[in-house]
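Marked as duplicate of an earlier ticket. Keeping the data here for the record.
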Amino acid sequence: MTAEQKEKPDSIPTVLRLLLVVEEVARQGVPVTPSEINQHLGLPKPTIHRLFTTLEEEGFLQRNLDGKSYTPGARLRALAAEVLSARSLRAARLAAMTALAEDVGETCNLAIPDRDEMLYLERVETKWPLRIRLPVSSRVPLYCTASGKLYLSTLNDTQIDGYLQHTTFEQHTPRTITNHDHLREEINAVRRSGYAQDNQEFMEGMIALAVPINDQSGRLLSTIAFHAPVQRMAMKEASSHLPRLREAAEELSRLVTDET
């Protein structure tokens, strides 16, 4: 938005207004109301509500159960995944992930947050015959996976309160954290360390380690992780690969930010 448009928001073309709303909703990363978004855009009240209605009707935004706030809709989430999967990025991304998988010796995956789940966007398999199958497009919970807990750590306390209030926690394994206070402690630990682990919390016999892939502003774009069966790797050994995992995350971050 130009300086002139900021001073005279009525001068912004309708198409650009729609894009600005979508951009701001995506930037917030949590359910937002038209009024909250308009604090950044300064459009007339009837205009901002009309733009939200249009974007909702077209599937780019969707209304939450409270009837007031909105989150990215199916079309916007699909668009985000397509951008990250662009052919020009994919070859270089797969090369970086393949090198990581070979160094670690285990399956690596790339995931993005999609509402209250993580969506697997990319995967490079281990060469070992014993492997855990979580194919591309798999969806996994936030509270009991390394990538999911990493994403939760980027939310503020109010957003986490909302997540805890509206999420049904399933005891996937005896180690799954379903207690809200214990999960908050885990999230705070992830914030301090900058990485997350899954110690047989989602699948019995599987461990995982995840770190963030951030954009230029330090916001989480996606996560990169590796997982392994406990018969082959203990959590202590997995943690020894953290520097290599972070190195791959930095390389993948540069790929995306240089492209954009």
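See parent ticket for discussion. The first helix runs from residue 3 to 7.
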